[in-house]
């Protein structure tokens, strides 16, 4: 399972990331509210751990935007704001839990496990372009009504492309979002992944949706 930590206190974020990683979770982290929101919208996470006081965009605003866009990922507020009004505000804004700093990691882990055991909220979130449809809740993609047999990475790559349809994405940006690492200019992991995805998504169809922008990267759009 994948967890996103949005926390600008580096010591706290490192402590959480280390502990959750050792507990078997894949962890992404950022100290910037705006960047955290972008990650939460672009990637598929099982849980978000969110601070309130963040640079660029505070935690209240991050949560509000996530819920406004229909993202039902569980959110655990982890903050030094311990007033009852703050707790109430957090829960009424759509947070699933609220824990005050300082905290014991054992309690954080217990709450994380509890949230991840809850059944998902049954909301439907689909994105379409031409005859391609992505069902994020079921982790499925189809063209012309026929289901595409995608690996987890291919689905993550396609999800990123369709969420940013019409936008040219660089290879570096794609690698950071889908594989969570930087790579040098000689690496071709993105090109290989795009070729494999094209074989399933575009090759059987007359209308091509994934396009190469020479010197820039790739874009998903309907040019028909």
Automatic annotation (TrEMBL):
Residue positions where 4-aspartylphosphate is found in the record: 51
GO annotations of cellular component type: cytosol; protein-DNA complex
Keyword terms of this UniProt record: DNA-binding, Phosphoprotein, Transcription, Transcription regulation, Two-component regulatory system
GO BP term, pick one: regulation of DNA-templated transcription
Residues covered by the OmpR/PhoB-type domain: 124-222
Superkingdom, natural source: Bacteria
InterPro entries for the chain: CheY-like_superfamily, CusR-like, OmpR/PhoB-type_DNA-bd, Sig_transdc_resp-reg_C-effctor, Sig_transdc_resp-reg_receiver, WalR-like, WH-like_DNA-bd_sf
Known DNA-binding region: 124-222
Coiled coil: none
Residue intervals of the Response regulatory domain: 2-116
The keyword Calcium is annotated on this UniProt entry: no
Gene Ontology MF terms: phosphorelay response regulator activity; transcription cis-regulatory region binding
Protein name: Two component heavy metal response transcriptional regulator
Organism the protein comes from: Hydrocarboniphaga effusa AP103
